[in-house]
Amino acid sequence: MRRSLAIIATAILTGALTSCSPSEAPPTDCGISPSSRAITNAADALEAPSGPGMYWSYEGDSNYDPCADLSYALLVQQPQGNAQFGTRMLFFHKGEYIGIDSTHPQQVMDIEGHGNRLVVTYKDWEALEESGLPNAAAPDFTAPVTFFWDNHADQLGTEGEFPNQGL
After folding, report:
1. Phi-psi region of 158 (alpha: psi -120 to 50; beta: other; left: phi over 0)
2. What is the pLDDT of residues 22-62, one digit of tens each?
């Protein structure tokens, strides 16, 4: 089942879903720029994680490129009390912030770029809990989700099942 609705809804709710018209010239500063102000502006606009004293921290994990159809920046929940901390992925299209990966609690374990696609591996806390195994088995419980820019629909697309939908 596709879960792009949560992503699109997030982008629409934040008022950040934009599209570039074909007549717009691409930015002159193309290339990966993990220190872009666009990342910190988007991160600053997010609601903080639930819990006293918690916040999102950007630690430089990004392939942000103002000319790319799809790029990301990863935020990590701080402080981290245990191995089950949250993350948020910020997505950008042609340099414009378009939304986050999921409104449900997630923890990104790995991000792989495959051309114009990002394959993100999430920790599946629900599957671990359902298994009855100890937390040490957590690396065995993951779920891959692929993100891509859908040119036909002019929006972020996904393939795969998001884990942790009941949390």
Report:
1. beta
2. 445 555 689 999 999 999 999 999 999 988 899 999 999 99
